[in-house]
Amino acid sequence: MTVQPTRVLVTGGSGRLGRVLTPLLTASGYAVRLASRGTNPPVDLVSGAGVVDAVRDIDVVVHLATTNGRRDVAMMRTLVAALDAGGDRLGPNVHLVYLSIVGCDEVPLPYYRHKTEAEQVALNSGLPVTILRSTQFHSLVALIFASQRRLPALVVPDIPMQPIDLADVASRVVELVGGPAAGRVADIGGPQTAPLTEFAQQWQRAQGRRARVLPVRLPGRTFAAYRAGRHTVPGTAYGRISFRDSLGAV
To answer: Is 197 helix (H, G, I), strand (E, B) or coil?
Structure first.
């Protein structure tokens, strides 16, 4: 008797994390399907076009797609509604895994508030749900620095950071896909928590740059929350790949 592999739908599969996660899921024996406006047929989580068909016969949905704004909440509502409408095969049986951000309920950024609200939509849906919060990716931190590469100095917020590698996050998501729904699971962060200026120096050395790194402090509740490390994970780190080690692949 042939056992059918677990079928996994990945929203946002063409994004940075999706491109790392998809081959890991495939190598682990899962049947992977991607859903985005660029797939054939296209799937639009904002308008709802193609979403019901995309979730048909799916066992696990890994929701990575983001609009970096309030439409993240609308996307979650659309996805939950499609899963509810999926019939007996889906309904209460499908497992929804959602990637969120560490500190999204403590750092008063609008995007973070939207992520928190999307979490609640998922948790209140009645579906089997797992919520994983991650710290910022190495690639995002490197992008902050790279955007200033033509400037004579590197201006960096005076805050701690605990970046994590995409491969570490993807590995944790694969673990969650293979397990039962667990609600909010433990947050994950990278192996090093340090001032962002230190990561800036590491990036500069990798780039062969010697520009001055200028730490800046800003007023307001958002910066205060970052200064307090609300976006970091205390205790033993989950991630194993350091920012320095990741720089060759950024």
So the answer is: helix
Residue (of 45, 64, 67, 66) closest to 55 by Cα position: 45
pLDDT tens-digit readout, 106-115 = 999 999 999 9
Kindly state the average pLDDT of the residues 91-99: 81
Cβ–Cβ under 8 Å, residues 72 and 115 = yes
CA dihedral 48, 116, 120, 173 (to 10 degrees): 80
pLDDT at 100 over 60: yes
Dump pLDDT digits (tens) for 152-190.
Answer: 999 999 999 999 999 999 999 999 999 999 999 999 999
Tell me how crowded residue 15 is: count the other CB atoms within 10 A of its CB. 16
Distance CA 179, CA 185 (A): 12
Whole-angstrom Cα distance, residue 122 to residue 101? 15
Give the pair of three-digit tokens for residue 48: 């709802």
CA pair distance 140, 164, nearest whole angstrom:
10
154 within a domain of the structure (yes/no): yes
Number of domains in the chain: 1
- Residue 55 sits in a domain of what CATH number? 3.40.50.720
How far apart CA 115 and CA 112 sit, in angstroms, is: 5
pLDDT of residue 34: 94
> Distance between CA atoms of 163 and 241, rounded to whole angstroms?
10
Q: How many CA atoms lie within 13 A of 68 on its CB side?
A: 1
- Is residue 249's pLDDT more than 60? no
pLDDT value of residue 36: 87
Q: Identify the domain containing residue 89 by its residue range.
A: 7-246
Can you tell me the distance from the alpha carbon of 151 to that of 232, in angstroms, rounded to the nearest whole number? 29
